């Protein structure tokens, strides 16, 4: 109940972000229900239902990532001074964030179920002249346990991921409650592992996609390769952003380069992983569009929905992480303004950070896309 009250009294932008999470949850729930209806409609040796379910994992993971990013920027579930006295400490606030995420996911799952039943004709009539009902196996009975299990994936996984992401850090020996953790700007680890995973993912994707193009199928190896690539870029993202900040403030930097470099180093962990995931998604879309006219497309009518969900959720998660980074820098920005820094300098610093990240990640995205598509070109 407390989570519902906090949701109802939130800022309109916060409510909009939660509604976007609900919309993404509805899209993923609809895809999962369509996969279930495809499975119960009969055996499909050429296109197994398990393979279609595996392709739903990418929209599911992107939706959970977006839900966690929204939970991290929710001011209603952020620990504040004095709330511990009334039983709302960091652990309870993280539980509230998880509950709010579960509410948004459950709302989207309910919408997905209603839309699915309406298109099947189970509620009233058969829209679209019965074409959608035929696609969704309207004449077959769906197992209720499987329906509720699939619809519960986004609320449960989103709530669990939000609780893990917002769990309070462990206090060190001798540290008092309320002490702020020491702020460090060290080199995030994972850059070598991220590069290795990306290379392996591109190789696996290219090898299995060659077989997919020749046989007309879409093996799960393509999804495995893309997953390795996405994990590798997400792992390497913080290190790349941190390295950009270090290079930017090297060789006798001025005030603007120094501020921009330090900000990139501070925000490396917040925006590095979402940037890496966006890089993986965009590179996959570029490679797929480049090969669209060269290979047969064994994709169903719901592939576009899954692609839109993945792209929209990853971009939204990146923008939300940028909002989180801006919120974290609010005190620093206010201190610089008090010390006499001009607002134009801070705006130019933010523009410089964006230009540097674009100059680094845009060629990286293009290079990964070319490497993935090169073995498939004849």
Structure write-up:
Keywords: Membrane, Transmembrane, Transmembrane helix. The chain crosses the membrane at residues 20-40, 52-72, 93-117, 144-166, 275-293, 299-323, 344-369. Residues 170-191 are annotated as: Disordered. Helices cover 72% and strands 0% of the residues. The radius of gyration is 23 Å and the shape is globular. The relative contact order is 0.12. Helix 2 (12-40) crosses helix 5, helix 2 runs antiparallel to helix 13 and helix 11 crosses helix 15 (343-373). The protein has 378 residues and is mostly helical. The chain folds into 2 domains: 10-79 and 87-169, no CATH class; 187-377, no CATH class.
Write the layout of secondary structure elements.
Elements (H helix, E strand, L loop, with lengths): L1 H7 L3 H29 L8 H7 L1 H16 L17 H31 L10 H5 L8 H8 L1 H13 L25 H25 L4 H29 L6 H12 L1 H23 L12 H26 L1 H9 L4 H31 L5
Helix pairs in contact: 1-5, 2-3, 2-4, 2-5, 2-7, 2-13, 4-5, 4-8, 4-13, 5-8, 9-10, 9-15, 10-11, 10-12, 10-15, 11-15, 12-13, 12-15
Q: Low-confidence segments, ≥5 residues, pLDDT <50?
A: 176-184, 213-217
DSSP strand tally: 0
Characterize the largest beta sheet: strand count, sense, and whether it forms a barrel. Answer: none
Query: How many helical elements?
Result: 15
Structural class by secondary-structure content: mainly alpha
Rg, rounded, reads: 23 Å
Order of helices and strands: HHHHHHHHHHHHHHH
Gross morphology is: globular
Q: What kind of oligomer do you see?
A: single chain
Mean of all residue-level pLDDT scores: 80
Tell me roughly what share of residues is in helical segments. Answer: over 70%
Q: Kindly report how far apart the N and C termini lie.
A: 60 Å
What is the domain total for the residues?
2
Note the beta-strand portion.
under 5%
Transmembrane segments: 20-40, 52-72, 93-117, 144-166, 275-293, 299-323, 344-369
Region (Disordered): 170-191
Keywords: Membrane, Transmembrane, Transmembrane helix
